[in-house]
Specification:
By secondary structure, the chain is an alpha/beta fold. It folds into two domains: about 220 residues, Vaccinia Virus protein VP39 (Rossmann fold), CATH 3.40.50.150; about 240 residues, Spore Coat Polysaccharide Biosynthesis Protein SpsA, Chain A (Alpha-Beta Complex), CATH 3.90.550.10. Helices cover about 40% and strands about 20% of the residues.
Length: about 475
């Protein structure tokens, strides 16, 4: 360990009079900042000069490093920013607070016991903490060693060259659940035009991404709740957008089970040509003694607008969407509560494409379209998706409030709401989990979806979001 300390102290002296905000470090800083937010508390372990920490958003930012040289330099360099820099060994973190985001960048290659560092990180993590670990691709080891041999790069101490499976396993045995891996940067030097094309675009496609220098693992602590602890812990709001669904309103109430601390039902009617609004009012009165039902009519158009109207008046800790066509059985809704309340994920997405579905539940072209969008989202968000267009999506109300604040990043681009919520959850760095359900045939009414018209809109939204999520 002494040779590593000597290396970093020497490196600090050598770099003190020049900027560390070079092309390579900017790329890492920008990517980490993408997943940080203005109301997040952020801890960087192995903060070095503090350049990365100074560029990420956060309401409170703390950087620790074992090098006194680096810490003093960071304090001097960023004295005008509200960042706390502390000299502290990653193998013995002594902080009496928990952080929302913990960043470990270019560090694990130089520590003796990576598992111990991760276990120290667990001490400063709360149940919803997100840990972002950045490390080198082991494929680059020969090239980096050759660069040191011919003098293009300063010689470094022997490093840990681990692959993603090794890092993910170390996180797992340290008590963390890895929910996403990503790869970035195939050209670490700035070459006008060429670097932009290689890193912004080609590096995001199969084959090319295999050669990326920087690998990332995203993780959160494993849930420690047992069923008895969360079964009655949270209240839930179920928003049911309804357009021309008069025949399904009463069944939506009767078939929805009781679960959690309390269930609130909100019907939002929008531009129906049948008696849906009258039926909603009638059912609210009929079941007022047994169910907590709120009702409203949307001023705008589209499912996304209806859901947002419902969420505005929601009071539950957990927000859910149930389509009024009841093709997602209301009886399955408690599965979504168990998944999010039990800490299995931060955003729960239903998937209709696991179990066999009823014969008339989904038309063939819709089926093909859903498979296409599941593939597209898997690539866009670096996480496997089976079904993106299932109407049932679940998240905590506190996270939804953050999502609305962050909506300016994407803009008002989604009339359906599915992509808006999924992309927003990704930007918030939430762990997205899918719950399989059996997709049923309609028993009343007709679908409000136009396969071709709406399919084109969805394709345009994917192209738009690729610029906001993938090519960054």
């Amino acid at each position: 360990m002494s040779d590593i300390k000597e290396y970093f102290n020497t490196l600090g002296k050598r770099r003190k009079n020049r900027s560390l905000s070079g092309y390579y470090w900017n790329e890492i800083s920008n990517y980490c900042n993408y997943f940080s937010h203005e109301d997040s508390s952020v801890l960087e372990i192995g903060c070095g000069s503090g350049d990365l920490l100074s560029k990420v958003e956060g309401s409170r930012k703390v950087g620790i490093d074992f090098s006194e040289e680096f810490i003093n330099w960071a304090k001097e360099k960023h004295s005008d920013k509200k960042i706390e820099f502390l000299q502290m060994d990653a193998n013995n973190i002594e902080l009496n607070e928990k952080f929302d985001l913990i960043i470990i960048s270019n560090l694990i290659g130089f520590v003796d016991d990576i598992q111990n560092v991760f276990e120290q990180v667990k001490k400063v993590s709360h149940p919803n903490t997100k840990v972002l670990v950045q490390y080198y691709n082991s494929l680059w080891e020969p090239l980096i060693k050759f660069s040191e041999l011919i003098g293009l790069k300063k010689k470094t101490p022997t490093q840990n060259w681990l692959n993603s499976r090794d890092i993910n396993n170390l996180l797992f045995i340290s008590g963390f659940d890895v929910y996403r891996n990503s790869k970035r940067l195939i050209c670490p030097f700035f070459i006008p035009v060429l670097s932009f094309i290689l890193n912004r675009y080609l590096a995001k496609f199969p084959f090319f991404r295999f050669f990326s220098l920087n690998l990332y693992s995203f993780a959160k602590p494993f849930p420690e709740n047992n069923e008895n602890e969360y079964a009655q812990k949270y209240s839930t709001t179920v928003v049911i957008p309804a357009r021309n669904e008069s025949g399904n309103i009463e069944n939506a109430i009767l078939r929805l089970p009781k679960f959690g601390k309390h269930v609130e039902i909100i019907f939002i009617e929008g531009n129906s040509t049948d008696d849906t609004w009258q039926k909603i009012q009638e059912m609210q009165k009929k079941y007022s003694a047994t169910h907590d039902i709120k009702i409203g009519q949307q001023k705008g158009k589209g499912k996304a607008d209806a859901v947002r109207e419902g969420y505005k008046i929601a009071s539950g800790d957990i927000l859910m969407i149930l389509d009024a066509d009841l093709t997602v059985p209301p009886e399955d809704i408690p599965k979504f509560y168990d998944a999010i309340a039990g800490g299995k994920g931060d955003f729960i997405n239903g998937t209709r494409l696991v179990y066999p579905m009823d014969k008339e539940a989904m038309r063939f072209l819709n089926y093909l379209g859903n498979h296409f969008f599941s593939w597209a989202f898997t690539w866009l968000l670096d996480q496997r998706f089976k079904d993106t267009l299932c109407g049932t999506k679940v998240m905590f109300r506190t996270d939804y409030i953050k999502l609305t604040k962050n909506r300016k990043y994407f803009g008002e681009f989604d009339p359906f709401g599915d992509f808006d919520l999924l992309f927003g959850a990704h930007k918030l760095n939430l762990k997205i989990v899918e719950v399989p359900i059996r997709y049923r045939e309609r028993t009343y009414g007709e679908t409000n979806i136009s396969r071709f018209k709406h399919g084109v809109i969805l394709l345009r939204m994917c192209a738009f979001a690729s610029r906001k999520c993938k090519f960054i």
